[in-house]
């Protein structure tokens, strides 16, 4: 009897222990499942950036390079001779070396006696001063006259105008009729030949518009003064 009771008591105690063990195991499993569920929910939920979280904007490291101009502005080169445009688009230069517009005096309409006007420009300079071609062109005539002395008639390139140089002391070497000359070429030297006063060396310079027949002794005279003083300056000889 006592043995049976002891056996029953032991059985009850053992069953109770088993029940307690199973209950504790179940609670631990439930707790583990809850933890795993919470972890999964936290991983699935995106982090919301609040005001306290600074949003990092992408920083551009690209430097905007402005186009650099490689073009060099070319300034117009200064020339030793200032010239004035004529009505036929030619360029006229003062035909005596060293003379400036300020040195010239208007005498185109001066009376030369007998009701005759001057019709030219006298450019004073020391005897022997180089006389240069006022424009590009051709030596049309070398002529010696009582009034003009030693003279040159030069046509422009288009044979529209004739340029007359008088009272020359002498011609430049190599000057001949038909010779092509460039503006600034020396063609003669200042003198007093003809009817020029011996003590007043100067160049008698005249311009005529040629007639259709192109004779060197005919044409309509032009006043050189405004053409030379409207911006012309002294010429540096080409030779």
Explain what this protein looks like in three dimensions.
The protein is an alpha+beta fold and 239 residues long. It folds into two domains: 1-33; 84-229, Glucose Permease (Domain IIA), CATH 2.70.70.10. It is 21% helix and 24% strand. The protein is built from two helices and eleven strands; from the N terminus they run H-E-E-E-E-E-E-E-E-E-E-E-H. The chain has helices spanning 2-44, 224-229; strands spanning 84-85, 91-92, 121-124, 130-132, 137-145, 149-156, 161-171, 180-181, 186-190, 202-209, 220-222. The strands form two sheets. Strands 3, 4, 5, 6, 7, 8, 9, 10 and 11 form a nine-stranded antiparallel beta sheet that branches. The protein has a two-stranded antiparallel ribbon with strand order 1-2. The protein is rod-shaped. 25% of the residues are buried. Mean pLDDT is 77; it is low at 41-54, 68-89 and 231-237.
């Amino acid at each position: 009897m006592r043995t049976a009771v002891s056996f029953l008591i032991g059985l009850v105690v053992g069953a109770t222990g088993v029940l307690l063990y199973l209950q504790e195991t179940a609670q631990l499993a439930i707790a583990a499942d809850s933890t795993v569920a919470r972890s999964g929910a936290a991983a699935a939920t995106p982090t919301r950036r609040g005001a306290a979280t600074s949003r990092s904007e992408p920083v551009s490291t690209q430097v905007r390079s402005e186009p650099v101009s490689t073009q060099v502005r070319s300034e117009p080169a200064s020339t030793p001779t200032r010239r004035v445009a004529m009505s036929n688009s030619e360029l006229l230069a003062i035909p005596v070396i060293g003379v400036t517009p300020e040195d010239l005096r208007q005498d185109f309409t001066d009376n030369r006696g007998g009701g005759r006007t001057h019709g030219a420009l006298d450019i004073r300079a020391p005897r022997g001063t180089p006389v240069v071609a006022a424009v590009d062109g051709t030596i049309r005539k070398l002529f010696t006259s009582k009034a003009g002395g030693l003279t040159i008639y030069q046509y422009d390139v288009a044979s529209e105008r004739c340029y007359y140089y008088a009272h020359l002391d002498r011609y430049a070497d190599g000057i001949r009729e038909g010779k092509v000359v460039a503006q600034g070429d020396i063609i003669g030297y200042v003198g007093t030949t003809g009817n020029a006063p011996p003590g007043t060396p100067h160049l008698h310079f005249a311009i005529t518009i040629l007639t259709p027949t192109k004779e060197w002794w005919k044409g309509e005279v032009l006043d050189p003064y405004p053409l030379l003083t409207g911006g012309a300056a002294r010429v540096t000889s080409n030779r």
